[in-house]
Amino acid sequence: MKKSFKLKVLIPAALVLLGGSYSCKKYLDQAPIGSLIPEVLATRTGVDGVLIGAYSVVDGVFDGQTGSPWETGTDNWVYGSVVAGDAFKGSNPGDQPAAANLEAFSATGANDYLDHKWRVCYAGVQRANDVLRLIPQVKDGSITPDQIKQYVAEARFLRGFYHLEAAKLWKFVPYIDESITYTANNYNVPNDKVIWDKIEADFAAAAADLPATQPQIGRANKWAALAFQAKTLMYDHKYADAYTILKDVITNGKTSSGAKYALGLYANNFNPSTKNGPEGVFVVQTSVHDGANGLNGNAGSVLNFPSAGPAGCCGFFQPTFDFVNSFKVDANGLPLIDTYQNDYIKNDQGVPAGTVFTPGDELLDARLDWSVGRRGIPYLDWGICPGAAWARDQPNGGPYLPIKNVYYKAAQSTTSDSYGGWAANQSTSNSYNAIRFADVLLWAAECAVEANELSVAEGYVNQVRARAADQSGWVKGKLTGYTGGDATKPEVDNTQFAANYKVGLYTGQFATNGQAYARKAVYFERKLELGMEGHRFFDLSRWDAVNGGPGGTIMSTEIEKFLKNTRDFGDKFTSAVMKVAKFTSNKNELYPIPQFQIDISKGTLKQNKGY
């Protein structure tokens, strides 16, 4: 078995000596690492250590950072999912108020979450540049020309990764290369233009020199770099260029361990025991019980558990009514793209804990119950989900529970840990799929739509839907009653599916109904397939015409629909945040630049429009 790349703990002592420089508030206002102790770092061992330090931030967390890990994680649960209608913040309104401001679209540049996220992104950029600065100083012959090419390629991949992470939120961000240093006094770099082309160039250069496979899982390979190049091109609306790359990745791509990209069981993507499978294009590695006191776990999701059941804290990241309703299907098993909001799937909002409850019999896409915890449905292997008994504040957070980031009960002892000694079982080895193969197929479908190859686009979507239609991947365990009417004693038939699932394939609808329909169907498929994975906000933003996309006013339209759908639920859902949430077009399609960063740049950085 190939060794997984432990991002936090495999950092040599030479790098640890420099740890203080990475906790500085001004990440760009520092001397280059290589100039500090070259007699230690200017060797192959030193370069290895600095590169590992650069990789260690891919999860959005590093030791000594400003802010909490759940504010900065690469899973982007707040920025990508909560602020786009996949999920409510959860907990209660006063818990994590900065997240509540983001959820309500009322955040300003003073929001702490945003400042801390910015710092982590540019700490990663700095670490990647440190590798590039250090390599020319190695004069002892310990690195061959081919090794230099690979070091440079990995550093450029990481620099692209961190810049893309920033550009997704703010779009107008500074691009920092290795020439920007404290010594040169040129570290106040403006954000006066988009930098997609520079990020594309980093990924292209990385792809040219990275190997097809890597000795350690977690290191980027050629195909991961190409997939990220294509992703960046999608943000840049260069669909033809992205399409060429994506077809190559689909046909020839393989994981860092050498497995041909493929779609396995949907649930395997979210099971710590089956991570790094053939769908993993680039997987952010996490681990537990490795001597790091849980700090190598999936720190971004440390709050995102039901307040009872697994972990026992903290009640954040609760799926919305809108997201759950999206999984309703018609008699052919196709999504109700335009009418899914007409009525609600039966749920237990307002139904007290300990009360007998039976789910409805609506026709549903089978991916729902791997994406959301619902009362009366098996919650992984934890038994029938009890609903309100596990919800921290149901009137404010709703009846649904997160599940994609949660571990299985049978594997709790090996896949969970106490995060930093305080969050029992809330550190997990449930690695985050930054890009998985389904993502690639649906990008290709987007590109095919824009090329007006509608039947081809339908084929890509159907590859994803065929996996969802495979009954071997459906949740089993139908609630048939309660012994003696006792809600704590559910009766379950494990030979039956847990709900009334039906998933169908498109059969020519794309070509028959035209490009606008096909585009809408692809967009909706991404909502179903990738929901609760931190992508929705960024998809809506890049599709919207405000940012040059082909989707018209899709972002404001979809979020206003979500807000109306939420408020229409009635007086059993009393979220104070949702009552005041208001999306403003030509503003909330991007996040505000952190004011602290504008201040320390002496005004070089400019605020995004509308803030």
TrEMBL record:
<dbReference type="InterPro" id="IPR011990">
    <property type="entry name" value="TPR-like_helical_dom_sf"/>
</dbReference>
<keyword id="KW-0472">Membrane</keyword>
<feature type="domain" description="RagB/SusD">
    <location>
        <begin position="281"/>
        <end position="611"/>
    </location>
</feature>
<keyword id="KW-0732">Signal</keyword>
<comment type="similarity">
    <text>Belongs to the SusD family.</text>
</comment>
<feature type="domain" description="SusD-like N-terminal">
    <location>
        <begin position="110"/>
        <end position="231"/>
    </location>
</feature>
<dbReference type="InterPro" id="IPR012944">
    <property type="entry name" value="SusD_RagB_dom"/>
</dbReference>
<keyword id="KW-0998">Cell outer membrane</keyword>
<dbReference type="InterPro" id="IPR033985">
    <property type="entry name" value="SusD-like_N"/>
</dbReference>
<dbReference type="Pfam" id="PF14322">
    <property type="entry name" value="SusD-like_3"/>
</dbReference>
<protein>
    <submittedName>
        <fullName>RagB/SusD family nutrient uptake outer membrane protein</fullName>
    </submittedName>
</protein>
<dbReference type="Pfam" id="PF07980">
    <property type="entry name" value="SusD_RagB"/>
</dbReference>
